[in-house]
Specification:
This protein is α/β, with parallel strands linked by helices and about 325 residues long. The chain contains 11 helices and 7 strands. About 35% of the residues are buried. Bound molecules: flavin mononucleotide.
Length: about 325
């Protein structure tokens, strides 16, 4: 191994390939350079998850996702003690939690490779990632990793549109836009291509004198933007998933018929909740906003750490 070369490990998991394509776009400026080596490793569960998802199989993974029950994983194929100067953890969100293969990796023996390493999380999801990232932060800290940045890409279109286009894509595999009002599902091509700016900043940070990464290197680059409207709704939804998830796990494994029947009850409950509590929540939030603005702004800033939502450095790396 060439001691002078900076080594970057990219850990990724994608079902449709979108997340891996976005990660490749981000890492493109690092590839093919003499002074940097990029190593790619897929976080693979021993039993793959289906895609497209049958409706019940989709709903049936929420208890384990939320309670972070690690699935059995295939080995990463990285030797223990291999030197890496930076790790990119590219992950997607399932039910406001890290997707099960990410939990599987973070709770496996392989996660020991993270000890003492600077980590950049790279999230590609619909748009609700706040709680998942808090959970990943805890698992990274437990593994002894240093989270230095977080980059987030979310699905294109208004949240009301992605509320239709993302599930349609996940349940049928159809990604196209339709009816003239719904955009294609997933992240826009512009956002995927634009991820290269983060790669350019990573090259700069790795190749400058010393190249030790202790603090954010992607601040001021529009890496994340927290929608303050999601802070309370994610908390509420996660609470509901957590309580119902505990009940469903107690009823039996994913194959249990009783659990499937109860899951159907929960699906109906969830639809009623979405149709009633969500609009009510919007009204309550609008009324409370002047009273809680300061606290909410502080919470938004905390959730945007370590990269922040500033954009002042974008031009230099566009
Ligand atoms: C079971 C399941 C649950 C999901 N839950 C969420 C979620 O809570 N929040 C979110 O923003 N996206 C959610 N998504 C969307 C994923 O984060 C991701 O965008 C999508 O699965 C496509 O990823 P891929 O193209 O890399 O395979 C979920 C997807 C799946 C399959």
């Amino acid at each position: 191994m060439n001691r002078d070369k900076k080594r970057v490990l990219v850990l990724h998991y994608s079902q449709t390939g979108q997340l891996t394509r976005a990660a490749r776009s981000m890492m493109a400026p690092l590839e093919g350079r003499g002074d940097i080596e990029v190593v790619w490793a897929e976080m693979r569960p021993a039993t793959p998850y289906p895609f497209p998802w049958p409706f019940f199989a989709f709903l049936n993974v929420f208890p384990e996702s939320v309670h972070m029950d690690a699935p059995r994983m295939r080995p990463l194929g990285i030797l223990p003690g291999e030197r890496f100067d930076l790790v990119i953890l590219a992950y997607q969100v399932w039910f406001l939690s890290p997707a099960l293969p990410i939990t599987g990796f973070l709770k496996s023996e392989d996660a020991r490779l993270l000890a003492g390493k600077p980590v950049i999380t790279f999230i590609v999801c619909r748009n609700m990632w706040l709680t998942a990232q808090e959970k990943v932060k805890r698992l990274l800290a437990a593994a002894g990793a240093r989270l230095i940045d977080n980059v987030v890409l979310v699905d294109q279109g208004h949240p009301l549109a992605t509320f239709v286009t993302t599930p349609r894509w996940l349940w049928t595999g159809r990604k196209n836009g339709f009816w003239g009002v719904f955009p294609p599902a997933g992240v826009s091509e512009a956002d995927i291509n634009g991820a290269a700016r983060f790669g350019r900043a990573i090259v700069d940070a790795l190749t400058r004198a010393g190249g030790r990464l202790d603090a954010s290197i992607l601040h001021g680059m529009g890496a994340v933007r927290v929608n303050s409207g999601y802070v309370a709704s994610e908390r509420l939804a996660h609470r509901s998933f957590y309580v119902w998830g505990r009940l469903l796990r107690a009823i039996g494994p994913q194959e249990s018929w009783l659990r499937k029947a109860m899951l159907l009850v929960y699906a109906v409950f969830l639809i009623v909740m979405i149709l009633t509590l969500v609009p009510l929540g919007i009204v309550i939030r609008a009324c409370l906003k002047p009273l809680i603005k300061k606290r909410l702004d502080a919470e938004v800033r905390r959730l945007e750490e370590p990269s922040g939502s500033g954009t002042e450095r974008i031009e230099g790396y566009a």
